[in-house]
Amino acid sequence: MHHPPAEIVTPRLVLRRSRPSDTAARFAFGRDPEVGRYMDWAVLTDIGQLDGAAERNAAKWNSGEEYAWLITLPDTDQPIGNISCRIDGHSADFGYLLSTDHWGHGYATEAAQAVFDWLAGLPEIVRIWATCDTDNAASIRILEKLAMTREATLRRWAIRPNLAPGVPRDAHMYVWIRED
Ligand SMILES: CC(C)(COP(=O)(O)OP(=O)(O)OC[C@H]1O[C@@H](n2cnc3c(N)ncnc32)[C@H](O)[C@@H]1OP(=O)(O)O)[C@@H](O)C(=O)NCCC(=O)NCCS
């Protein structure tokens, strides 16, 4: 069992676990088609879909299935996105999203770097990976800024229901490998 930090403080952000009171903020970006464009889940249509979300996040955290943090600005404590990772033995993957009105400030890179650094600090993790749609230029850039390398392009890998329902699309596989 891992012991992820409940809170990760970066120069401009606080990554923290979700609470039921975050529901409205989570719905605001979870319903946004621009945010959902390259996601593999359909955007939210009803705030009720988030009923119990914080509790579900807590159950996954406690079982070790997934560790998810909301990305918040320290002065307001307002969630502006989320980031999560999953550990499977020697490997781990992560994913992130940010509300559109906070794009373009380097926040996603800062949050991703922090979670990446935590994962890379676990001695048993020798492979950290992330996939992204081949058209998702901003995410590709983030993964490259983390000094991850493109290992492969996975053909017809994932369905992006908000972009092309039912049509599997190509994705890049980015990795960091512990070489020692
Ligand atoms: C991906 C996402 C988190 C990026 O947010 P962001 O605020 O733009 O991220 P950052 O500012 O940290 O970095 C983005 C980088 O990509 C670059 N970029 C952004 N849009 C780009 C585009 N259309 N083409 C090329 N580069 C782009 C930025 O210039 C920046 O690089 P730089 O620091 O070298 O200038 C945001 O677009 C998002 O939430 N998208 C929806 C969810 C999503 O796709 N998540 C990733 C799933 S794999």
What does this protein structure show overall?
There is one protein chain. With 180 residues, the protein is of the alpha+beta class. It has one domain (7-177): Gcn5-related N-acetyltransferase (GNAT) (Aminopeptidase), CATH 3.40.630. 26% of the residues lie in helices and 32% in strands. The protein has five helices and eight strands. Strands 1-2-3-4-5-6-8-7 form an eight-stranded mixed sheet, with helices on both faces. β1 and β2 form a beta hairpin. The protein is globular, with a radius of gyration of 16 Å. The model has no long low-confidence stretch (mean pLDDT 97). Coenzyme A binds at residues 35, 38, 95-98, 103-109, 132, 136-139, 141-142.
Summarize the structure.
This protein is an alpha+beta fold and 180 residues long. The chain is built from 5 helices and 8 strands; from the N terminus they run ββαααβββαβαββ.
Topology:
Elements: E1 7-9, E2 14-16, H1 23-30, H2 33-36, H3 53-63, E3 67-72, E4 79-88, E5 91-98, H4 107-120, E6 127-133, H5 137-145, E7 149-159, E8 168-177
Parallel strand pairs: 5-6
Antiparallel strand pairs: 1-2, 2-3, 3-4, 4-5, 6-8, 7-8
The protein binds coenzyme A.
Coenzyme A is lined by residues 35, 38, 95-98, 103-109, 132, 136-139, 141-142.
Key features of this structure:
180 residues, Aminopeptidase, eight-stranded mixed β-sheet, 5 helices, binds coenzyme A
Q: Under the CATH scheme, which architecture would be assigned?
A: 3-Layer(aba) Sandwich
> Residue-averaged pLDDT, rounded?
97
Oligomer: single chain
Total helices: the number is 5
Largest sheet: 8 strands, mixed
The CATH C-level name is Alpha Beta
Strand fraction? 25-35%
Can you tell me the overall shape?
A: globular
Which structural class should the secondary elements be placed in?
A: alpha+beta
Secondary structure: number of strands: 8
What is the domain tally? 1
Report how far apart the termini are: 23 Å
How large, in whole angstroms, is the Cα Rg? 16 Å
Order of helices and strands: EEHHHEEEHEHEE
Regions with little confidence, pLDDT below 50 for 5+ residues: none
